[in-house]
Amino acid sequence: MSTRTKSLQIGALALVLLTCGGDIRREAGEMLRDAGDFLQSMDATAQGGPVATHVITADTDLSRLESGIATALTTTQLVAGPIVVTDLVGYPQTQFWIAAVGACSTATTSFATGEHSPVTGVRIPVRTGQALCARSDSQAALLWTGFRPYE
Fold first, then answer.
1. Burial call 74-83: b when 16+ CB within 10 Å, e when fewer
2. pLDDT of 3-19, one tens digit each?
3. pTM
C-alpha cells in the first residue's frame, strides 16, 4: 500500500472519529499523531534522509548577526561588506550611504537621513569591497544592525 493511500485512509478515519465522544477523540488524536510521525519517517527513508523541521537562514542565525555604535561628527565608515544592514538609527543632520571601502569621503549621495530615523526592518545590501558610511553634524551616536550573508 502506498504512502498516499495510507494518508487518505488516516484522513478518513479522522473524520469518522471527530463525531465520537471526548475520550475516544483524545485517544484517536494520539493515534493519528503517531501515524503521522510514522508516515513522515517513511517518507524520509524513501527520499534518503530526514525531513527538515526547521530551517535557519542568515538573518535568523545568531552567529551571523552584527551591530555597532559610532559617533560621526565627520565622515565615518561604519562597517565593511559583505553585510545586509537591517536597521539604522541616526539623528537629524545624519546621512548614511554606501561607498567603496576606504572611500567614504568621496561619496555624495545618501540613501537615508536621520530625519527619517529610525529605519528598521529593511534589507540594505553592502557588497564585498563596499562599506556603510555615515556623517553627522552632531556627536550623537549612530547605531546599525545587520547580518553577514552565507557565502
1. ebbbbbbbeb
2. 555 544 554 444 444 44
3. 0.61
